[in-house]
Amino acid sequence: MASAQTTGNYYNYRWEPCKPVVIVNFSVSEEGNIEDVYVSTSLHPVFDAIAEKVIKRSPKWIPALSKNRHIRSYMKQPVTFGQQE
């Protein structure tokens, strides 16, 4: 993301580095279990494996409701990587 400041008729941009992101798709069953995990937007095989592992190890999700019944839902979750400073 860039932030801009106005000085007269000119803009001064301060560019911030982009963070790597892996997009993981999966489904949430009627019981809230994570199923059918796969990477839809890949970064690198190592990062992809970490992102899949994080989603698979997450606790149970709250299942979607339709007509007052729990149903299977499909999710697309971005996993962002960064370094601690």
UniProtKB/TrEMBL annotation:
It comes from the Bacteria. One of its GO terms (biological process) is transmembrane transport. Gene3D superfamilies: 3.30.1150.10. Transmembrane segments: none annotated. It holds the Pfam family TonB_C. Residues 21-81 form the TonB C-terminal domain. This is TonB C-terminal domain-containing protein. It comes from Niabella ginsenosidivorans. The lineage of its organism: Bacteria, Pseudomonadati, Bacteroidota, Chitinophagia, Chitinophagales.
